[in-house]
Amino acid sequence: MCDVVLLCRVSDGMTLVETNSETKSISHKLELKKLCKKLYSFPNLSTVTSNNFNYHFLIENGIAYIAVFPVTYPKKLAFLFLNDICKQFNEELMIQYGTHSIDYRSIIETIEKPYSFIKFDRKITKIKQEYKDPRSNIAIKKLNESLNEVSSIMKKNIDDILMRGENLEDVGRKAFNLKYESEKFKKVSRVLNLKYALYQYGILASIVIFFFLIIIFKNYF
Question: Which of 25, 19, 66, 18 lies closest to 42, judged by CA?
């Protein structure tokens, strides 16, 4: 079961919405306060372990989605949970601010009041129930859907690579043909140059022979 869900602004750690379980401890609060001060240095997906709890982070568009789970809870499922929270919150932003050329990150940066999205905690609570038991049919179904999605992406990537491989073969074939034609062109060029040289020297030789014959004719006839 998720102990804490916290959405906050990355730039300054200001809380946008937070939900807690009945077992939330002071240590969670202190740890989150410390971590939220350095969110800017976190990668998009990360986990910090402290006191037998995992603090999972998903950062997107200037918002940190944080969930605290016991270390025994599957990490893959925890990040699927955060991903669902992120999707639902994006839908919430669309409802509140519209969808036409809206920069939601800029909107988040201009919010001055903490807990401005406190009403969103009801949706968080609903999603938490779906992930309450990692062995439930819903949780297993979500894992399978995620695995199928990953498999589809991998298959598509492999197909793209194979397709690029075919294209590379075509390019290689064209390059070979171009090289072959280039070699043929060089050979033809050499032959033409030789013929042109013979033609030039032939004319010169003909002129020389012509004058040589004239000289012989004058001297002997």
Answer: 66
How many residues does this entry show for the chain?
221
Reported as a single tens digit per residue, the pLDDT across 154-166 is: 666 655 655 666 5
Phi, psi (deg, nearest 5) at residue 45:
-130, 130
* Residue 53 dihedral angles phi and psi, to the nearest 5°: -130, 145
Q: Which CATH superfamily is domain 2-166 in?
A: Longin domain (3.30.450.50)
Residue 164 token pair: 């690029």
CA count, 13 A, side-chain hemisphere, 158: 6
The pLDDT tens digits for 23-67 are 556 778 888 989 998 898 899 999 999 888 999 999 999 999 999
3-state SS class at 149: helix
CA separation for the pair 31, 26 (Å, rounded): 9
Task: Give the Cα-Cα-Cα angle 138, 135, 44 (nearest 5 degrees).
Answer: 75
What pLDDT digit, counting tens, does each position of 107-152 carry?
999 999 999 999 999 999 999 999 988 888 887 787 777 777 666 6
Find the helix packing angle between 137-220 and 75-97, rounded to 10°.
Answer: 80
